[in-house]
TrEMBL record:
It is an enzyme of class 4 (lyase). The lineage of its organism: Bacteria, Bacillati, Bacillota, Bacilli, Bacillales. It holds the Pfam family Lyase_aromatic. Contains an active site 4-methylidene-imidazol-5-one (MIO), which is formed autocatalytically by cyclization and dehydration of residues Ala-Ser-Gly. There is a cross-link at residues 141-143 (5-imidazolinone (Ala-Gly)). This is Histidine ammonia-lyase. Belongs to the PAL/histidase family. It comes from Effusibacillus consociatus. It catalyses: L-histidine = trans-urocanate + NH4(+).
Amino acid sequence: MVTLDGSTLKVEEVMKVAQQGDKVAVSQQAWERVIRCRNRVEQMVANQETVYGVTTGFGKFSDVSISSQDVEQLQTNLIRSHACGVGQPLPQDVVRAIMMLRANALAKGYSGVSKETLQLLVDCLNHGVHPVIPAKGSLGASGDLAPLSHLALLLMGEGEADFQGARLPAGAALSKAGLTPVRLKAKEGLALINGTQVMTAIGLLTYVRAERLAKMADAIAAMTVEVLRGIPDAYDESIQQVRPYPEQAAVAANLRDILQGSRLTTRQGELRVQDAYSLRCIPQVHGAVRQVLTYIADKLSIEINSATDNPLIFLENGKVISGGNFHGQPIAFAMDFLKIGMSELANISERRLERMVNSQLSGGLPPFLARRPGLESGMMIPQYVAASMVSDNKVLCHPSSVDSIPSSANQEDHVSMGTNAARHAVEVIENVARVLAIELIAACEAAEHHGPEKLAPATSRLYHAVRETVKPLLQDRSLTGDIEHVANRLLEGEWIKQPANVS
């Protein structure tokens, strides 16, 4: 059980709810604040105060007054009109993360949502009633309006939902789960959709997978260093100390540990004086990627515990203030940074792969690691595939955060495009996983030519883990299934502790 209070949620807890089905509850202190904040909204309506989205229209219609008898219809109309997302539905784990993050933001007690509405959102999450949320349609400012409106539709008993493996009308799904839809009251529709939870949910799940890839990249690179008879002197601690980036030092220490006991690595001057950059600069490049991930983790930790509604209700002084916490710029930057950082992990991986398959660079390995070069192509085309995905990443890495298209008749004249950045980051991460998978398969194949018994104990364990499902390339065969299988294992982090034992 994960307790939501709006302030202390951790990334690990989101993952447990999103992917493992853990249940959530709102803390008693949070409930008390939610109720008091809701009472303040009711007071506004009774006093006919002019408050954006409560007694006025939305966006360009913020100057249009709404009568007290229409305030509930206003919220219903808001959700129905804004629920116009398009594209494929978001995956279930992303939807669960969205629901949890929205509940946590509402539990902070600044949004004015009713206890009944927040409880239904929590109940839907705990009962596995998941709204169908199309992936495309958010500008990432004024919140993730279109996708979050599909979440709000569920609470109204409208739209579609996935429940127990079936897609149903939302009302039917709620009924089967023993739940009853709510009629949204003043401000509640706005409270449900003004927020960055879609881009943050996508970004958080993508960040976790990126962390796994960054860790496994060290072990994969280490095996490549071995089969290319690389020189670990470049990873010496003294080199890292005079350029004291902690992430660079951590990668170098990882490489030293992983390569301990190898009978394939060489020393300076033994075969060559120094290696190419793709081998020699692994600590510097992989370390810089870890710096990117550190930055992103910090921003996600702040965002998942933020109030991103508008207007916000401050019980301490009674103020109701319109602001811009719904603007997704911090997450937009973070997601663009994630794309750029992780794409470099694939860039350097593909260059190491090229050295393994190019007999002019591999130091004695057969061309394309083929058993019968010429008659067989070996790993020739997998390198093409890796190069294709590296190129694809360069297009996907165009920053979404530098784009802005005005909306709502120029009232909302600057937007973040953060959700687009997060969606593109998903594609980049999947490409990176496949490039690393191809490098790992090639490194295992190169080890066959040297004798896998010469690998270091750590890389030997990784080699045998791969060989449980990916057999040696004794003759040409389609490697599509093998590449996808290994990429999925890397994304799920199954080999981080055993057999790779990386940190």
